[in-house]
Amino acid sequence: EKVYINGRIVPHHEAKISIFDRGFLFGDGVYEVMVQIGETFFYGKEHLDRLVGCLKKIKLDFDVSTLPKEIERLLTASKLNAKDCLVYIQVTRGVAVRKHSFPKTGKPTIIMYATPFTLPDINQKSIATITTEDNRWHRCDIKATSLLGNVMANDQAAEQGMYESIFIRDGRVTEASHCNVFFVKNSIVYTHPADTYILDGITRQIIIQLCKDLKIAFREEPILEENLTTMDEAFLSGTTTQIASIGRIDDHLFDPDGSIGPITRKLQQAFLELKR
Ligand code: PDD
């Protein structure tokens, strides 16, 4: 497998990163995950714009203008031109003597890889999730590589044979370890507002637009933990997850008969029809 590192494309075992890289020592970096479906990146511009926004938020000076060309080079080297694939991009603050404040000199480290990707089947059965305390920091709007809170939460779900952990902060549902979370109650779609407690997912933004287009009532309001079991439908969204119906949260079953709720279904279908 070929990877991209600071302008070079090399077999992955030849790519070397210093142990003094701040991405490695501090998790001082940001990343993106996007998918190419057929010949085009699915909302690629939005993903790159979010990367620019996150770089700005962490005061990391990196020029993304050459990225689209560099991604093309990577895809060619990976023999993934015009194929369904996932591209991972990570920019860190680079190599410096270990000191918490930002180094005055030095340049960012950029790595990328592309890997074949199969879109999940929307007819997959509803997925099982657990709730867990959202003990992450208060800047979840930054797509930071420091993901310890997320991986620990997700592993808690995996240990119980579940797919996702849904975070609860101060009695409110924020998001999940690598997805956004939506609920439906009385035909109104709810999701947490895009403040600093969640990552404003590109898939989330697409769903909000679809609600407008399809005239589905929509509110950016957090759902209270105590009201979770009174919801009619629940679903997850994310680049790799797309729109996935939640069948279970802890011991509560949303779809005892295994069917996907009508509004989740409608959004999944509209999502599939988007130009890809
Ligand atoms: N995860 N919330 C969190 C915490 C995420 O990590 C992600 C994405 C999302 C959904 O964002 P989007 O719709 O833009 O993919 C929400 C990526 C895919 C990952 O870490 O693999």
UniProtKB/TrEMBL annotation:
It comes from the Bacteria. GO terms for cellular component: cytosol. Pfam families: Aminotran_4. Belongs to the class-IV pyridoxal-phosphate-dependent aminotransferase family. GO terms for molecular function: transaminase activity. InterPro entries: Aminotrans_IV (IPR001544), Aminotrans_IV_CS (IPR018300), Aminotransferase-like (IPR036038), BCAT-like_C (IPR043132), BCAT-like_N (IPR043131), Class-IV_PLP-Dep_Aminotrnsfr (IPR050571). The keyword Transferase applies. GO terms for biological process: amino acid biosynthetic process; carboxylic acid biosynthetic process. Gene3D superfamilies: 3.30.470.10, D-amino Acid Aminotransferase, subunit A, domain 2 (3.20.10.10). This is Aminotransferase IV. Keywords: Aminotransferase, Pyridoxal phosphate, Transferase. Its cofactor is pyridoxal 5'-phosphate.
